Amino acid sequence: MHNFDFVKPSSVEEAIAALASEEAQPISGGQTLIPSMKARLNAPETLVSLTGIAELKGVCPDGDSLVIGAATTHATVAADAASHFPGLAALAGQIGDPAVRNRGTLGGSLANNDPSACYPAAVLGTGAAIVTNAREIAADDYFQGMFTTALEDGEIITSVRFPIAEKSAYAKFLQPASRFALTGVFVAKYASGVRVAVTGASENGVFRLAEAEAALSQNFSAEAISGLQCSAHEMIADLHGTPEYRAHLVGVMTRRAVAAAR
Amino acid sequence: MPKDDGIGASTKRREDVRFLTGNGKYTDDINLRGQCFVHFLRSDVAHGRIKGIDAAAAEGMPGVLKVFTSADFETAGGIPCGWQVTDRFGEVMQEPKHPILAEGKVRHVGDPIAAVVAETYEQARDAAEAIEVDIEQLEAVVDMKAALAEGAPKVHDDLTSNLCYDWGFVEDNKDAVNAAFESAAHVVSLELTNNRLVANPMEPRVAVGDYDPWGDNHTLYTTSQNPHVIRLLMGAFVLNIPEHKLRVVAPDVGGGFGSKIYHYAEEAFCTYAAKVLKRPVKWTSSRSEAFISDAHGRDHKTKIELALDADHNFTALCTETYANMGAYLSTFAPSIPTWLHGTLMAGNYRTPLIYVNVKAVFTNTVPVDAYRGAGRPEATFQIERLVDKAARELGVDPIELRRKNFIKADQFPYQTPVAVVYDTGNYDATMDKMLELADYANFEKRMEESKARGKLRGFGIAHYIEACGIAPSNLVGQLGARAGLYESASVRVNATGSISVYTGSHSHGQGHETSFAQVVAEMIGVDANSIEIHHGDTSNTPMGMGTYGSRSLAVGGSAIVKATNKIIDKAKKIAAHLLEAAPEDIELKDGKFSVAGTDKSVDWSGVTLAAYVPHNYPLEDLEPGLEETAFYDPSNFTYPSGAYGCEIELDPETGKIDILRFIAADDFGNIVNPMIVEGQVHGGLAQGIGQALLENCAYDAEGQLLSGSFMDYAMPRADDVRGFTVDHSCITPCTHNPLGVKGCGEAGAIGSPPAVVNAAIDALHRAGHTQVTHIDMPLTPARVWAAMKA
To answer: Does the pLDDT at position B1 exceed 70?
Structure first.
């Protein structure tokens, strides 16, 4: 790891000011950034920690929504969101291992937008709003491909507003080594219809499954999508699975998520 | 009698107290005054010609003491290979030079090009980034068959090809084997891969070199399974340091699994650089570095064929294997696919004719050497997969086909057609025990229960044999070993009766400090807590050839028995003098010497005190003191065997396999510490199941390692291996060592991979997927699903 300066502001304003300097980079839980710095693949001159800002933390019900601070750890979401939004809490409780869950944060995961991360499926699958220091971004506009988002330089996520679903579940098939999602599907049922989002499978990152959403909006049952066929086009090919295998898993995991939805 | 800590007691491991409380002393815990740090600049291409190295900027960076390249090692030898294989035609293998730092070419990703020594590790790493290396990238050879093709790029320009050797065994059997196949009623064949693995011990490798200029003494602290072997290889072949000027210390070592047997370039570098710089030089491998610098394991591609007569008796076996050596020959690499593999191809069966052909190939990959089991897992996997396939093709029960061809209990000693003589065994007994513990009779009920939940259940069987306790020296010498394979021990009895045992057998997880003490406690009849086991330092322990091949108790333990018997003989003479009796009338029982048929006695400490305070002592006949050394060179290998059963559930929607039951019924001969044996089997099973389902060291066509971290290399975790049923009540003691022990360290990793794969194929066949005759390891969900769809 190269040397760097470390600042830990206590407000969003201070953080934004600190990020204005050249080669400064925000750090939240550091579960991706620290390993890449240790491998010398990333060498920011200044790290601006977002974990000392009280207003970025916490799980807060707000009418039909659950607002979660960007610097809230996965472990906190798993515990504190359980009674409000069990499908979301269960997803948070399956991320990584206990060490990752006690460090990694919601905002960090979304800013990184790893194509195999779990949280993007929940955010897109609920149609959540990503709240930043400058604006609100709809989930459908936020994810722009592998490791790419709508965030501008110097813009930080402050919270995420999740519409609470009537029923929801996340079905994740583990990549055997990393235990990221080889394919993960988040399904959420709302009065207005059903949303289905898939992570881990596509070269373009998280995506919605329109065909399944239409069928499930008519009939929210695994049988309604028994014939679901997903194209292997632009699916990820690696040591752990072919595009065809991932496309197949999309159907299997979607049916399992629907069956498990509570 | 110390029943709670003698032979057969499950004494708790005394070494665990320091390990579990964080008080183990590992090589990385050693920090010497004035120590500096080395970072190796490693090749990021698999094959390339070094056209220039410009280290001027790096040498001027803060804290940098020196940048070394191959030019600094012109007087040093290459890293030696410890085994020379002679090929089918009587020619010795091709043996390329393995320089400490790359000379002229880089030959695998991770090949060290330069080494930066600096005041701190981070300074060394910073400076390494400033070294400019001009490399002309060359086409890499990764696939073994492609490497042997006409016109393939050569890994070593000075060799005639990428073929290390073409070995045939037994070459004289070849025509008879061919004839047997021509007259066979049935021939069954199978092509399979034994997947490349990375050992990944919990502790990465570390080396600290130290030099004392006043006495011209070198010391190397290193993470080794065999410090004496490192002293011999590095001193005699690489750095030209005589043994009395070189001390090698392997303190606590956090697992090896084979990967810490070998002499590595980093050890020679640190020893040499410490002398050049007159300061201690330390290297600690990162996990990422371990993936590209620790020797890998396995990596065989094999075609195996079995001939059977009309009654399903095995009549001949023939194999053709391509074995990957990687870019250089690691210490024992040539012996693994040959003498540790070909000699095991009879398995547990009476197959009368066997021919094994092995082509060892150089490729632009990390060197490959022994990994837990070493050659024997490769042999067992082929045989047990093929026998299962044969049973399926012939429509007979795989258990009955095995039993029909087993060497029977009354046929030992059994001369196999592949040189070795099995001394004892009872394969029907272990098979019976496994089936009983597995509740095999009720398997189909459980299968129906799985079916009701939409899952496929399968039961897989494997029966293995291994050759352990690698020896004897005169035999391995004929087979090409450049060393002997004995062990030694010194037993030093102190004046007050406590005992210090110095063994050449290093312990790095095996529990020697506990089980070796149990052996001595049993023999003398004293409390094991009065016995200390010392190992790992060449300056105070007698010569040891290393801990591998499940040989420590069978060979090292036997040396301790021999030395302890010398102690007892002398102590009896002292006791006889004290009791005014004849030595042959003295009995030793429960730590007390008595005159047979009388009530006259003297206890152990009375004798030991007399030995060191010889006021009343037969000085004219006996030397004072009580210390003896013995060397033990066995007359044969030992032959543990066992039956393994694996019951799995397979999710037909995803292809994922869950192991529900795993039963290991082993015959390890006599057992010193059942708890330690059980732990060894558990560890072996976890690694074998890891190979079967998870672990896959994969390169792309350019020689880049695709599984270079735990993000892509799947190690088994606790929830992958949820529990085992382990039994070692079937005992046929080894006939040729004093303890009657066979060795247990590798069995789990040898027997489990075919059991797991056989279980998967069984589940698929029972569900109608009869087109699936084999799936290559690891049986990842994606591979299983693809096989079902095919």
So the answer is: no
Give SS3 for B51: strand
pLDDT tens profile A160-198? 999 999 999 999 999 999 999 999 999 999 999 999 999
Domain around B602: 15-23+486-632
Same domain, B113 and B65: yes
Q: What is the structure's pLDDT at B3?
A: 62
Q: Does B700 touch chain A (CB under 8 A)?
A: no
Look at the block and give the residue holding tokens 């709003």: A129
Using CB atoms, pick whichever of B126, B710, B782 lies closest to residue A241: B782
Instruction: Label residue B770 exposed, middle or buried (CB < 10 Å: 0-12, 13-18, 19+).
Output: exposed
Q: Are residues B122 and B271 in the same domain?
A: yes
pLDDT in tens, B686-719: 999 999 999 999 999 999 999 999 999 999 999 9
| Cα distance between residue B487 and residue B98, in whole Å | 28
Residues B538 and B521 in one domain: yes
Q: Which residue of B125, B709, B785, B789 to mutate against A (max A Cβ within 10 Å)?
A: B785
User: Do B516 and B660 fall within a single domain?
Assistant: no
For chain A, counts of helices (H) and of strands (E):
10, 12
Q: How far is CA B94 from the centre of its chain?
A: 24
Query: Computed from CA positions of residues B26, B29, B35, B39, in that sequence, does the dihedral angle turn out positive or negative?
Result: positive
Contact: A177, B786; criterion CB under 8 Å: no
Strands B456-465 and B421-422: unpaired
Please report which confidence band the pLDDT of residue B677 belongs to, taking 50, 70 and 90 as the band edges: very high
Domain identity same for B607 and B711: no
Partners of A26 in beta bridges: A48
For testing contact with chain A, the best of B654, B719, B720, B721 (most A CBs within 10 A): B654
Using one digit for the tens of pLDDT, what is the confidence trace for B271-302? 999 999 999 999 999 999 999 999 999 999 99
- Which residues constitute the domain of residue A240? 167-260
Contact B458, B760 (CB under 8 A): yes
Instruction: Supply φ then ψ for residue B789, to 5 degrees.
Output: -80, -20
- Angle CA A165–A123–A194, to nearest 5: 40
CB B309 within 8 A of CB B184: yes
* Closest C-alpha to B363, from B585, B637, B154: B154
CA of residue B475 relative to chain centroid, distance: 19
A157 lies in the same domain as A79: yes
Residue positions counted in chain B: 790
Contacts of A39 in chain B (CB under 8 A): 288
Residues A93 and A154 reside in one and the same domain: yes
In angstroms, what separates the C-alpha of A75 from chain B's closest C-alpha?
Answer: 20
Is the Cβ pair A177, B288 closer than 8 Å? Answer: no
Tokens of B274: 């410490």
Distance CA A71, CA B787 (A): 44
- Confidence at B470, pLDDT banded by 50, 70, 90: confident
Q: Are residues B364 and B257 in the same domain?
A: no
pLDDT by residue (tens digit) across A29-40? 999 999 999 999
CA dist B535 and B250 (Å) reads: 8
Task: Give the mutation candidate from B44, B197, B691, B780 for the A interface (greatest A CB count, under 10 A).
Answer: B780
Do B249 and B356 fall into the same domain? Answer: no
Separation of first and last alpha carbons in chain B: 64
Tell me the CATH number at A19.
3.30.43.10
As for how many domains chain A has, the answer is 3
Contact with chain A for residue B421, Cβ under 8 A: no
Residues B680 and B558 both lie in one domain: no
Do A66 and A37 have their domain in common? Answer: no
**CA–CA dist B691, B298 (Å, integer):** 10
User: Chain A residue closest to B783 (CA)?
Assistant: A241
Say which CATH number the domain at B563 has.
Answer: 3.30.365.10
